[in-house]
Amino acid sequence: MMRSDTPLVPTVGAAEPARLRGVSDALLVEFTRTGDPDAFPELWTRHIDAVVHLTRRLVADPDSVLPVVKDAFAIVKIDIAQDRYAHHHVGVEPFRVSVYRAVADLVGRSLPSGASRPPILRALHQLPPRFQALLWYLDVEAMSLGDVELLVGESPAEMQTAHRLALTNLRAEWLLALLDYPTLPSACVWNLRRTNSRAADWLSKTATQRYDHHLRECRWCQNLAVDLQSPGQALERAMDHSLAAQASPYPVAP
Fold first, then answer.
1. What is the 3-state composition of the chain as percent helix, strand, coil, each rounded to the nearest 5?
2. CB-CB neighbours of 156 under 10 Å
3. Half-sphere exposure (CA, 13 Å, Cβ side) for 13?
4. Are residues 148 and 101 part of one domain?
5. Which residues on neighbouring strands pair with residue 90, listed in sequence order?
6. Domain boundary among 56, 80, 111
7. Do 105 and 127 reside in the same domain of the chain?
8. Residue 165, CB-side half-sphere exposure with 13 Å CA sphere
9. Dihedral angle, C-alpha 57, 47, 136, 89, nearest 10 °
10. Per residue in 47-105, pLDDT tens?
11. Do both 162 and 146 map to the same domain?
């Protein structure tokens, strides 16, 4: 682990310049990359409380929480400055998630990635960064539109419109991710491929009867149908389960 007294992150309670308080996270990341000394302290101020809250879930020793958080921010700052973008995540996902990943890596409890990531989380990472940010902050972290406005630099009306589109795209990508599952029964695959067609009433009478019969008999497809109506809630639940699975009863190793 890096030294917890690293000067690469501001001290707790450091004042941020007023000129950057309305700037989106994406721009602050870019300003950090180009050498603006005030940009990263603003990111620290915005996200420190949430990162500390998550770190407490992953670290049993309370005295280790703040050193881990400081090191995580420092890692992300170095990666931004060196164009590594936090293992290729900063800039393609919310800044806060990049710090979460750094925390998890530091304590040896890396968050699921690649094929091990739940399908809905894989679907999330197929979306444009703007949609990822809105879904993460509004659905996973249940932040208010007013708070998210500061992070993404959009008005509440713009965010509401984009959020609805983000949910639609998340639902579509989620179905595609599920279809990649090699162990999914063929009957479930048949229904999944026709989910949108059934909702739009495009199926023939015979196909509709087949679809509905399977849905009545398959509990997994029933649960999925409910989740597809509220993909934001399903995303929140999947992330919470992933974090719970990574939680460790042990303190951070020295």
1. 70, 0, 30
2. 12
3. 0
4. no
5. 93
6. 111
7. no
8. 11
9. -90
10. 999 999 989 988 888 899 999 999 999 999 988 887 754 445 555 678 898 898 889 88
11. yes
pTM of the predicted model as reported, rounded to 2 decimal places:
0.77
Residue 93 backbone phi and psi in degrees, to 5: -160, 165
Same structural domain, 118 and 209: yes
Q: Find, among 66, 113, 110, 73, the residue nearest to 90 by Cα.
A: 73
The token pair that represents 202 in the structure block? 């495009």
Q: What's the CA gap between 165 and 161, in Å, rounded?
A: 7
Tokens 């059934």, residue located? 198
Q: What are phi and psi of 172, to 5 degrees?
A: -65, -45
| Number of Cβ within a 10 Å radius of residue 217 | 10
At 71, which CATH number?
1.10.1740
Q: Which two tokens stand for residue 233?
A: 């809630």
Indicate if 104 and 140 belong to the same structural domain. no
Do the Cβ atoms of 148 and 160 come closer than 8 Å?
no
Residue 21's domain comprises 1-111
What whole-number distance in Å separates Cα of residue 103 and Cα of residue 42?
19
Same domain, 155 and 56: no
Q: Among residues 111, 133, 163, which one ends one of the domains?
A: 111
Total structural domains within the chain: 2
List the structure tokens of 226: 């409910």
The more confidently predicted of residues 74 and 239 is 74
- Asked if residue 101 and residue 119 are part of one domain, the reply reads no
Is residue 248 within 8 A of residue 103, CB to CB? The reply is no
Inter-residue contact 192 to 175 (CB < 8 Å):
yes
Cβ neighbours, 10 Å, residue 4: 14
